[in-house]
């Protein structure tokens, strides 16, 4: 492992763990959503977990590109992640609120990765985190708008 990338790799592994728990939570919500918002949220959760699945692979491959080793088992993800598992009996607004909370944690970790990558002059990682932050902020805005109660 290249020494200048060590801290970036460590931060990316936390991000990888975060995305794995986020992905599984979205699958949970996709499978367990009921009620009048079933159709729209069932599709939205699927859209989000498909996006997370791609990001998981990109993050792991970035770690490998930096000559690191991506975390690759669930016990390590659970022990490393900032995100916690979720119950299966939440209602629609609770699910969306949980996703929004996870977005805050993902954004926080993305900013930590960005800081480490900037210190290491790692433009490849900076390119990835900048894109992810923009996408996640927009998705959060939309979910927050949906979740507003009158």
How much of the sequence is in beta strands?
A: under 5%
Q: How would a crystallographer describe the biggest sheet?
A: none
> What is the CATH superfamily label?
Ferritin, core subunit, four-helix bundle
User: Percent helix among the residues?
Assistant: over 70%
Q: How many alpha or pi helices?
A: 5
| Terminal Cα span | 53 Å
What is the second-level CATH architecture?
A: Up-down Bundle
Structural classification:
mainly alpha
Record the SSE blueprint.
Elements: H1 6-32, H2 38-65, H3 74-80, H4 92-119, H5 123-147
Describe what this molecule looks like in 3D:
This protein is mainly α and 150 residues long. The chain has a single domain, classed as Ferritin, core subunit, four-helix bundle (Ferritin, Up-down Bundle), CATH 1.20.1260. The protein contains 5 helices and no strands.
Short description:
With 150 residues, this protein is an all-alpha fold.
Write a concise keyword list for the protein shown above.
0% strand; mainly alpha; 150 residues
């Amino acid at each position: 492992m290249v020494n200048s990338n060590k801290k970036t790799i460590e931060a990316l592994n936390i991000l990888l763990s975060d995305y794995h728990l986020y992905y599984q939570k979205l699958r949970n919500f996709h499978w367990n959503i009921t009620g009048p918002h079933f159709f729209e949220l069932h599709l939205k959760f699927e859209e989000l977990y498909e996006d997370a699945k791609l990001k998981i692979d990109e993050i792991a491959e970035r770690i490998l590109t930096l000559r690191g080793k991506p975390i690759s088992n669930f016990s390590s993800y659970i022990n490393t992640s900032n995100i916690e598992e979720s119950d299966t009996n939440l209602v629609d607004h609770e699910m969306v609120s949980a996703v929004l909370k996870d977005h805050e944690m993902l954004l926080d970790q993305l900013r930590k990765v960005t800081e480490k990558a900037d210190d290491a002059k790692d433009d490849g990682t900076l390119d990835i985190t900048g894109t992810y932050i923009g996408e996640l902020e927009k998705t959060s805005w939309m979910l927050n708008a949906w979740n507003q109660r009158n």
